[in-house]
Amino acid sequence: MKKVLSISLGSSKRDHLVQTKILGEDFLIERRGTDGDKRKAYRLFTELDGQYDAFGIGGIDLYIYTINNRYTFRDARKLIKDVRYTPAVDGSGLKNTLERMVIEYLEDKLGMDFRQKKVLLVAAVDRFGMAESFVNCNADIICGDLIFGLGIPVGIKSLKSLHRVASIVAPIITRAPIEWVYPTGNKQENSIKIKEKYAKYYRDADIIAGDFLFIKRYLPDSLEDKIIVTNTVTEENIKELEQRGVRMLITTTPELNGRSFGTNVMEAVLVALSGVKDRELKQEEYIELLRKINFTPRVIDFTKARNNYEYV
Asked: Which among 102, 176, 196, 249 is least buried, having the fewest CB atoms inside 10 angstroms?
């Protein structure tokens, strides 16, 4: 049996464990939250090194991307600095492959038309592959990196502008404590009191995409007729979105026992399947594994039957 463990700075309330079979291999997939305790996360990574086939680094990015650059979060690097035997991944490899494929899948297989649709991507540097795919589909994107990451109510309207902003801001924020940028621990369970200047970005969008904890950060009471493209939602999150009027929920990672795990977990699954321990997987290797597994997004259309939603 292959064993995958995601150690997260997030809330322990979101912990989950599932046994499943992937490409004929038995898997034990587990997520453990440390409630924002970086020392505990470091200790778990170090003590459990060599006991798992792959680690997921949760609740924090190791890398963020722009057009030509990759930036490393110092706090994330510290968590795994003494890991020697178990590969540790943060999901960025999967975001740059699977999430590109998901947008293509929605367009080609489900007939979704993104042309001229207003897309709020809450953190494009976290999901640059998805951002590029929306642009390639001629969507009208607003990157919310300054809004949701730094609390600055300024939308970024192109990937070139994102690159320029990130080249200035990313070297600074990647050296700052992760809590300054991303909700950790119990903060993941709460929405910040809504401010009108942030709620308008939700109202103006047809599609809201990206990390669910960022989406939830300023979540307004009404999301009537919105499409959400995200990951890592619980059954409670799904019910909350339905109650707020969401038309469709798409999670880029598949459902496992009622839960869509984070991209860090699913990337760790692919690494475990590959057996590669001494280097990062190449993009084409991720794509080959994804095609073998036939990963498809989970699509929930709430309009089919309110309070008894169905999967597409």
From this structure: 196
Spell out the domain ranges in the chain.
Answer: 2-90+261-293, 98-255+297-311
Q: Are 136 and 159 in contact (CB under 8 A)?
A: no
The model carries a pTM of: 0.88
CATH topology of domain 98-255+297-311: Rossmann fold (3.40.50)
Is residue 87 a contact partner of residue 4, using CB atoms and an 8 Å limit? no
Residue 135's contacts (CB-CB under 8 Å, 6 or more residues apart) are: 141, 159
Residue 186: strand pairing partners: none
Alpha helices in the chain (DSSP H): 38-47, 74-79, 92-95, 98-108, 128-136, 150, 159-173, 196-204, 212-217, 235-243, 263-274, 283-293
Q: How far apart are CA 244 and CA 218, in angstroms?
A: 13
Other Cβ atoms within 10 Å of 67 Cβ, number = 13
Q: What is the phi/psi pair of residue 141, to 5°?
A: -95, 150
| φ, ψ of residue 51 in degrees (nearest 5) | -95, -10
Q: Give the DSSP letter of residue 192.
A: P
* Total length of the chain: 312
Torsion of Cα atoms, 104 then 109 then 112 then 113, to 10°: 60
First to last CA, the chain: 31
Candidates 149, 115, 143; CA nearest to 131 is 143
**Averaged pLDDT of the chain:** 90
Dihedrals phi, psi of 56, to nearest 5 degrees: -105, 140
Tell me the pLDDT tens digit for each residue of 210-232: 999 889 988 999 999 999 999 88
CA torsion sign, 191 to 192 to 196 to 200? negative
CA 129/CA 115 separation, integer angstroms: 18
